[in-house]
Amino acid sequence: MPGHIWYRYGTAAAAAALVFMLRAALDRYLEDRTFTIIYVPVVLFAAFAGGRGPALLATLLCLGISAKSLGWDLVTDPANMIDIACFAILGPMLGFIGDRLLRESKQAGDRQAHLQSILDTVPDAMIVIDDRGVIRSFSATAERLFGWSPDQIVGKNVSSLMPQPYRGEHDRYLERYLTTGERRIIGIGRIVVGERSDGSTFPMELAVGEARARGERFFTGFVRDLTERRAQERRLQDLQSELVHVSRLTAMGEMASSIAHEINQPLSAITNYMRGAKTLMAAETFDTTRVRDALDRAGKQALRAGDIIKRLREFVAKGETQQSPENPVTLLEEAVALALLGAKEQGVRVAISSDRDIPSIVVDKIQIQQVVLNLVRNAIEAMASSARRELTVGVTKADGAAIFTIADTGPGISDAIADRLFQPFVTTKEHGMGVGLSICRTIVKSHGGNIEALPNPGGGTVFQFTIPFAEAGEEA
Ligand code: ADP
Description:
The chain is of the alpha+beta class and about 475 residues long.
């Protein structure tokens, strides 16, 4: 092992032995001269390979060789004395210098190893380029991410890691930055597209830092792969959508069962009165007043059933209302985002365009968002089998009211239910409850607005509902 003590001193001694043989071979030419210059390489070698200790050993050994070959001439001849004294000083000096160099090179090595360990372990890929865009270093994560090994990519232009059109533009961009200082990406995280060695692309987050060293400029890019994060987000969305679905079903289910329970009483009463009337009428002569009475009672029970439904719908709409002034645009955007979160359907293009500066509306935010959520869900469901899936939503300002529009490019409202669209339990869906639109209407009406469905000129349906603006005094 090169750093081992025996190795360091051993090589110094071996070098001294070599020079001893050389000195012996040259002895007859050198006569009684010390000629210490031939020892200098030995001390240099010992100093730079082993440091101070081996350099001192080599110096002593060389002095010993001189003493051995010259005997008393070494001390009696002043020239030899001067030569030997100079060498005796030079040896340790070289040793100190060697020590220092060794230490510095070890520190540099440690720093390099430290840096490399960081480069190898940072979760972000790191790529260092120079001011011409040439890749200088490529971390282990970058290797995994882009599929290039450092041998293949270091020395190439960084634009090889980008798809067109960025690839063509990068050099110009770098040039513009160097001449004008105009920053597009330096110091700012950006979401961009990267290209792997197999030509596939992926979304990545890029942050770039700038450094200067010895008059050269370097840029370090930190790259984070967003594919994994997107996948996680998608999983989360699926989960949320399940949740929304479940809660919607539970709410609907609860409502349906309570409706069924409440309505059962008047219905069985009606049946009983009808049976009674039938029995009365079966007799040869019957009392018409009694039959009329039974029918009257049955009619009242039917009205009671209607009342129950009305009360339930009011309960759904007014339940625990918390009215507050809201910005219609933010309210709509939030609800649409929520609705899309739950929507598994991919490939729906959403366009939101609203008027600016729309006054506030005083509403129960959750309820109005529920309306939007329902309409957006219906629209997405309606477009499931359409070739064109465009959802256009927005709020516009009209006379005294905000008009919310949710337009789809689905098949349009089926003729069979068009005139009963907002009535409860009207549905064309296999598993539909048919209560969504009736609840929407109740909520909109309880806010003093209106809801209607119109055919979309380009095919599909446009649902529109209005919510009156807050009175001046009510604004927050
Ligand atoms: P559900 O969605 O449970 O059927 P809704 O009251 O929300 O209950 O909707 C009632 C019916 O109205 C649906 O079954 C469907 O036929 C029709 N409908 C609602 N929205 C749309 C739409 N955007 N496009 C076409 N038909 C629609």
